[in-house]
């Protein structure tokens, strides 16, 4: 889609050593990819590697944190605040990843509060939503992703700095990628929900990216779907095939 710049995020999750991280950055820095005018590339290392990666990474790629605290920092042991990310010049943060929703019991309201606070501090947000296998099989995918989006929509008024990542839980880290038709169907439902409940302008401009077992082999066909505006990539973002996924933008 011409109006929405293709977006490729790499979620490194809780992986890597200093040496491994440097090696991935070297591979990215040497890669031939379209310019920033065609594709926006954002990689998300664990917090402790953020300054290293930001310092070494090519200037046309950007970095994201994988989480941040829900409000202003202070007496919250073990947390990292949005203010700290801003202070370090980290432009993006991933919020509401299904691993955090599931393993750390982050509710849609808590995620929405984080999104609103991060935006208020000037961060750009990759907000993750998606249904479980059980929910898909029960035929309630559309309701689940609408509810997750509604929680966010209730707490923000400006979507300019939000990318919505549709990540079906059954597809994350499983090798079971959504078919292009399955991804397209949910993205259309989401865009329609946003059209009806936020605004037609936001619906037309917000990037809705797909995540869940995207790899170098399946990215091209997924990228061809009119409402798939990019990807959030986990496992494959640690490998050279991430370059092929970036190149699926064209
Ligand atoms: C993710 O963690 O956001 C993800 C999509 O993981 P994977 O690509 O490994 O399925």
From TrEMBL:
**Cytoplasm recorded as keyword:** no
Tell me which UniProt keywords the record has, alphabetically: Isomerase
CDD domains for this protein: TIM (cd00311)
- Give me any GO biological process, just one: gluconeogenesis
Pathway info: Carbohydrate biosynthesis
Record InterPro entries: Aldolase_TIM, TIM_sf, TrioseP_Isoase_bac/euk, Triosephosphate_isomerase, Triosephosphate_isomerase_AS
Among the GO molecular function terms of this UniProt record, one is: triose-phosphate isomerase activity
Name the GO cellular-component terms: cytosol
Domain of life, per the record? Eukaryota
Report if keyword Cytoplasm is assigned. Answer: no
Q: SUPFAM superfamilies of this UniProt entry?
A: Triosephosphate isomerase (TIM) (SSF51351)
Record family assignment: Belongs to the triosephosphate isomerase family.
**What HAMAP family does its record include?**
TIM_B
Q: How does it assemble?
A: Homodimer.
**Name of the featured protein:** Triosephosphate isomerase
Gene source species: Crotalaria pallida (Smooth rattlebox)
